[in-house]
Amino acid sequence: AYTYHVTAVDGDTASFGIDIDMSAPGPKGFDEHGKATAKYDTKRLCPTQFDYTGTSRHQPAMDQYVTTTAHLTATLVSDSFAPK
Questions:
Q1: For residue 69, which of 83, 84, 81, 52 has the smallest C-alpha distance?
Q2: Using CA atoms, how far apart are residues 42 and 27, in angstroms rounded to an integer?
Q3: What is the 3-state secondary structure (H, E, C) of the chain?
Q4: What pTM value is reported for the model?
Q5: How far apart are alpha carbons 47 and 77 in whole angstroms?
Q6: What is the pLDDT of residue 82?
Q7: What's the CA gap between 43 and 11, in Å, rounded?
Q8: What is the largest CA-CA distance in the chain?
Q9: Which of 1, 27, 2 shows the shortest CA–CA distance to 17?
Q10: Is the CB of residue 14 less than 8 Å from the CB of residue 42?
């Protein structure tokens, strides 16, 4: 499940907090938990910044676990729909 919380609005910019909690039970199941923040341009309906940190743990075999931690930062650098 992804849960979004609007944390601030400043003019045409909305800031979000995002909580990620997913799991699938079973012998090849997984768990993923993470947090993200995003900034969104409400006038252009466009994300401008995203930052995610999360940990995923899956079980490829009954006696084996693999844990992966990821961090992703993305920032909008250009807008092909912007007026010229």
A1: 52
A2: 43
A3: CEEEEEEEEECCEEEEEEEEEEEECCCCCEEEEEEEEEEEECCCCEEEEEEEEEEEEEEEECCEEEEEEEEEEEECCCCCCCCC
A4: 0.76
A5: 11
A6: 67
A7: 9
A8: 58
A9: 2
A10: yes
Q: Of 31, 48, 34, whose CA–CA distance to 2 is shortest? A: 34
Among all chains, which residue has been given the structure tokens 């993923």? Answer: 32
Residue 61 neighbours by CB distance under 10 Å: 9
Question: Is the torsion defined by CA of 80, 51, 54, 36 positive or negative?
Answer: negative
> How do the pLDDT tens digits run along the chain, 84 residues long?
899 999 999 999 999 999 999 998 877 788 999 999 999 999 888 899 999 999 999 888 778 889 999 999 999 988 776 666
Which residue's structure tokens are 């961090």?
71
Which pLDDT score, from 0 to 100, does residue 83 have? 67
